[in-house]
Specification:
Oligomer: heterodimer
Number of strands of chain A: 10
Largest sheet of chain B: none
Structural class of chain A: alpha/beta
CATH class of the largest domain in chain B: Mainly Alpha
Largest sheet of chain A: 6 strands, mixed
Order of helices and strands of chain A: EEEHEEHEHHHEHEHEEHH
Radius of gyration of chain A: 18 Å
Largest interface: A-B, 26 and 18 residues
Bound molecules: adenosine-5'-diphosphate, magnesium ion
Number of helices of chain B: 13
Strand content of chain B: under 5%
Strand content of chain A: 25-35%
Number of helices of chain A: 9
CATH architecture of the largest domain in chain B: Orthogonal Bundle
């Protein structure tokens, strides 16, 4: 799905989080929102997912105005920075949650739910952990379960907030490839937030470099990784990717 | 990790003395009165005990106390969850005032609460004439007893659930919403299971208190025998009648309830800690 962000601004009370930003994300792209802490990356991602509403501006999905759509109507697969797994449910029930929450008419039956959950567990390469609870998983496993849970609702896009932030360096490298593979297999337009320029450059098709200031986060440059490396658009970008 | 413990038999005299003292005091202050209640209740045999319990006024007191608890506890649970949820999830003017207000009943003597209700709803009270015009009897009747018991027990559920909700944050609830869940589904399948043990724990404390409440209720009930006497009030009444065996029989019911609550509380405490 093609995502268009048109002059989106956001303030929280007196705090400016986003200066008006505009951005066009081609269908099927793997996009990184890259920037230092406080540059409005999470806010922008939450606005896309419908968890936050912009103070002004519009969001368009495939050309249709989606600004007023509720979270549920957005059908965005969202992976939280904390993963936010349901701690009282097994991995199986976590992944099945979105399917079981559907209205009766469109809810798949038990067999079908089990089939889909099994397929997702295979996709994240953890076929045997369905009966475990989140507290019994490693950080990397939790991240992948959160990803599977988000994919279970057959989302129109995938949004991930610092998906590798809580992991150690070795696991982080492995899971980067995991995300790339899942993106390629599902073909979903995917946006992930990171403050790690290596991660953004290595993984994304398109990198959006953001900076923060008193007047709110803004976009410094949008481009392919190699273009951002070879032609940084501002002193901020040059310094940030050199860091 | 192993906690450091003393073996009293190998250490000096002071710890042994203190342990002995603690055990002796517990026996004297807590256990002895409990045993005494049952000893006196059964003092004249099983038959007298059964007769005392099956006395219509006593049965009525048990019934009134049960009804009161059956109304108060669910209302308290609903209130406690809503208050905790609002405070944990939203920032609004007056929020800290609300947190303080929830705790007020713990710092006010129940008698004062009773008198406040009397001044508000009694015949000479602020709302008295209006209530009388509409033929509504609040004081010296079930509504008054229920209102005062609600006031006294108001904080129990909220103060158990609130810290938990605050600690857990709203991430899981937000995740559920992104997965398509409605507000009710989020509450039913995510919020509620996460606070389940703390909620039950608060409900047990609330029940114990609702059943045992004396001071506030004594002001608003009017002590009409067989009509507005709850079980604690009835115990006092029997005692004043010099019917000690009857009083202890009624007291034994309250004591049993308290013991059940104590066991439930201990079990839930362990669950809650996991
Ligand atoms: N719910 C909120 N209430 C108030 N201020 C917020 C809220 N969320 C974010 N902000 C502010 O908005 C700015 C951008 O935050 P965020 O989008 O989280 O940045 P990033 O994810 O890039 O670190 C920060 O100044 C932050 O303090
Ligand atoms: Mg962030």
């Amino acid at each position: 799905m093609h995502i268009e962000i048109d002059e989106i601004a956001k303030t929280f009370g007196t705090t400016a989080a986003l200066h008006p930003v505009s951005l066009s994300l081609p269908s099927g792209a793997l996009v990184a929102l890259l920037g230092p802490s406080g540059s409005g990356k999470t806010t922008l991602l939450r606005i896309l997912g419908g968890l936050e509403f912009p103070t002004s501006g519009r969001v368009l999905f495939d050309g249709q105005d989606a600004t007023g759509l509720s979270v549920q109507e957005r059908r965005a697969g969202f992976v939280f920075q904390s993963y936010a797994l349901f701690r009282h449910m097994t991995v199986f029930d976590n992944i099945a949650y979105g399917l079981n929450a559907r209205p009766r008419a469109s809810r798949p039956n038990k067999v079908e739910v089990a089939r889909r959950v099994t397929r997702l567990l295979d996709l994240i390469q953890l076929p045997d952990i369905g009966a475990r609870y989140p507290s019994q998983l490693s950080g990397g496993q939790r991240q992948r379960v959160a990803l599977a849970r988000a994919l279970a609702i057959e989302p129109r896009m995938l949004l991930l907030d610092e998906p590798f932030g809580a992991l150690d360096a070795k696991v982080r490298k492995e899971l980067r490839q995991g995300l790339r593979d899942i993106h390629d297999e599902t073909g979903l337009t995917t946006v992930f937030v990171t403050h790690d320029q290596d991660e953004a450059m290595e993984l994304a098709d398109l990198v959006v470099v953001m900076s923060g200031s008193q007047s709110g986060g803004r976009i410094e440059q949008i481009g392919k990784p190699q273009d951002i490396r070879s032609k940084p658009a501002s002193a901020f970008v040059r310094e940030f990717i050199a860091a | 990790m192993q906690a450091a413990t003393f073996n009293p038999t190998q250490t000096s005299l002071v710890p042994r003395l203190l342990i002995g003292l603690a055990v002796a005091l517990t026996l004297l202050i807590v256990v002895a009165p409990l045993v005494y209640i049952f000893a006196r209740a059964f003092g004249e045999g099983w038959r007298v005990y059964a007769e005392n319990l099956l006395n219509p006024a006593t049965l009525h007191a048990v019934w009134l106390t049960t009804i009161t608890a059956l109304i108060v506890v669910p209302v308290n649970i609903a209130f406690g969850i809503s208050a905790a949820w609002v405070v944990a999830r939203f920032r609004f003017p007056g929020r800290s005032l609300l947190v303080t207000a929830i705790e007020i009943p713990f710092s006010i003597s129940p008698i004062i609460a009773g008198i406040c209700y009397l001044l508000l709803y009694g015949r000479q009270g602020l709302l008295g004439p209006w209530l009388a015009d509409n033929d509504l009897q609040v004081m010296f009747a079930l509504p008054g007893i229920v209102l005062v018991t609600m006031f006294v027990t108001a904080p129990f559920v909220a103060r158990e659930v609130l810290p938990l909700m605050q600690a857990q944050g709203s991430d899981q609830e937000q995740a559920a919403v992104t997965l398509g869940a409605s507000g009710w589904q989020v509450f039913r399948r995510v919020t509620l299971p996460n606070i389940k043990w703390a909620l039950l724990y608060g409900a047990v404390l609330c029940t114990a208190r609702a059943v045992g409440e004396f001071g506030g209720v004594s002001v608003v009930s009017g002590n009409i025998r067989g009509q507005t006497n709850t079980l604690p009030l009835h115990v006092e009444l029997l005692f004043n009648d010099l019917n000690a065996t009857g009083a202890f029989a009624a007291a034994s019911v309250l004591t049993l309830l308290a013991l059940v609550a104590l066991v439930a509380k201990t079990v839930l405490e362990a669950r809650k800690a996991r």
